[in-house]
Description:
Layout: H1 6-13, E1 26-29, E2 32-35, E3 38-41, E4 44-47, E5 51-57, E6 60-67, H2 72-82, E7 92-100, E8 103-110, H3 112-122, H4 157-166, H5 172-177, E9 181-186, E10 192-198, H6 201-216, E11 225-228, H7 234-242, E12 247-250, H8 256-265, E13 268-274, E14 277-280
Amino acid sequence: MPLPSSNSCSAALANPSSDMWTQTPATVEALVDIRGGIRGSSNRDRVAEEVPVAMVYNGISHAVMMASPRDLEDLAVGFSLSEAIVDHADQIFQMDIEFSEHGISLEMRIHGECLANLKNQRRNMVGRTGCGLCGTESLSQTLRAFPPVPERPLPNDTAIQFALRNLREHQPMQTETGATHAAAWCDLNGLVKDVREDVGRHNALDKLIGARIGRHGASAFQSGFVLVSSRASYEMVQKAAINGIGCLVAVSAPTSLAIRTAQEAGLVLVGFARPGRHVIYTVRP
C-alpha cells in the first residue's frame, strides 16, 4: 500500500470515528475576560488541539509526543528522518493513521535494515520523545554525530527581514489560537514557500522537513533557509543539520550547545530575528 497523500490524511481526520481529534482549533466556553484589572464578560475562545501521537514502526511503538492533529504524514516522515530511523523517505513503505479515544497512532512499515537499527537503538533506551534526547540512558548517547551540511547558497540580511515581516500571514493556527509554533521554508529572496504549524516547535520543524522531502527529495533544501518562530535549541539545530538545511533562523535565542553544534556542522545559525534586527551566531567555515 503506498503512502497516503495529504488529501487522504485529511479525509482520515474527518472520519466520524475521529471527531474528538480534529484538525481545526476547538471552540471552548471562556469564563471571565480580565483586562487592565477589570473583569468583563467572555463568551467563546478558539484554542489549539493537542493530541498524543505515537510513532509505531513495524508494530513497535517507539515514541509518543504531544502534537497538533494535522499534517500527520509530514510529521511521521520528518521525525523518522530527523531521528535517523530511516535514511531516505522511500524506506517507509506504508503508513496508516489509526485513531482511538486515547490519541493517534502513525503505523509505519519500514525497511528491514532500518528496523534492525531501530531495535539496536532501543536496547539502550527507556523511551524517546520528539526532542531527540529524552530517554537516553547515558551521556554518550546524547550528542549524535552527523555529516557536515553541504555547501548551500545563503540568504542576505534583506531576505531574512522580508521573511520575518511576512511570516505571520502564513500562520493561520497561531492567528486563531496564539498557541502554535511555525517552521517555514523561505527562498533566497525571503519568500515563504512552505509552512507547517504545531503546538510543539520540534513537531513543526519535523512536519516541514517531511513535507519538503516528501515532495522534492534530495533537492528539498538546496537553496533557501528555514525560519522558526521559537528559540534555537540543540535539537532544532540537529534536525536542520541532519537534513541538509544550510541556514536556520530563529526568532528567539540560541543555546550555547546549539551554536557550537551549528558551527561544527557548517550550518549558519541566526537568532533573535525580529523585524529590524537579527543576530548571526555562526558562519560557514
